[in-house]
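WARN  no MSA supplied for this record, continuing single-sequence
INFO  ligand: zinc ion
INFO  echoing inputs
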Amino acid sequence: MENFTENRENLDDVSGGAATGAEEAGKTGGSTLIIGGKVFGDLDAGALKRGNPLLADDVLVTGIAADGFVRFTAAESTATCEKARIIHGTSALATAALGRALTAAALLSSQLKNETDSVSIQINGKGPLGKIVTISDVKARVRGYVANPKAELPLRVSDGKIDVAAGVGKGFLQIIKDLSLKEPYIGTSALVSGEIAEDLTYYFAASEQVPSSVALGVRIGPDPDGKEPFRVEKAGGFIIQLMPGAPDSLIDDLEKRIGGMPSVTTLLAAGATATDIVKDIFKGYSPEIQSSHWFGYVCGCSRGRMQAALAAVGRKELTEIYEDGHGAELCCNFCNKKYFFSTEEIGEMLARPPAKPEGTGEEPDGGTAES
Ligand SMILES: [Zn+2]
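INFO  complex generated
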């Protein structure tokens, strides 16, 4: 079983893909999502009907196969990764790395149950990208950031692809699952490659003792409108996990099938859906789709939450900011939205420390204060 670590590395490429650009541009939908003055994607009527009006048009599917010996989750995450690129103004390298980590967070959301649960992936590498953090809730509302969004490296000489491994560097990976219990579950493992999919495969084996196959891919191509240096053309991935007692023949066969597959982004670019991809992998093993829903990049920050983050700097610091008389600006790390608190408001906070807002099971949104 330990051999079941095959995964799809090096999925990024920088190929042209004009055909897929036309396909994306030609998409029609109900309403348009506009972020930061930029028009972004369409919300189609289906997404609205499914009760997910906030979100873009990515799809997450989960299911089982081979008499329940296999659980799978697959995602097309193109819109999520493109939204991350727009929000953070990421370089090609950072787009690929953050996109993979966001896709992984969406995939891991299938392991959550309650409305208040969340899962966070923290990639602490020593490479030029710095720390990468992504978070998902049970509905795969994902968000994330990378410490150095502009970091860039030359394409890898060996295969001409984006060198995510070098961008991430050596270090460790943490998965934090807040399952609405007293304490969050925290698992840690070494970064064995920096390509993220391989690192997660290793994490599942080392930290959770679950043989897994993880694929994550972000394909970057030219902007059809020529306004942006590039855009995310296709992104997606899957996590396949074996349950205890899975027969060796099944493991061998899946290794062969997955090893011989084109990359997820190649399949998506050819018109396959996330469902098509898993159905194809498990052909003959009675794959059963158990859920399929829309998801996207959503930040849940609010003035109240940011005020709580500001209060958390401590009374002494807050008093200094008050006395400084310039107020405080906090920027949400996940969506770059800025929140300004005036000296008067800070004075009120000092006079009457605010009660903790509801749902603080999650860390504050990592706002950074500037006075
Ligand atoms: Zn935010």
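The longest strand covers residues 231-242.
INFO  checksum written, moving to next record
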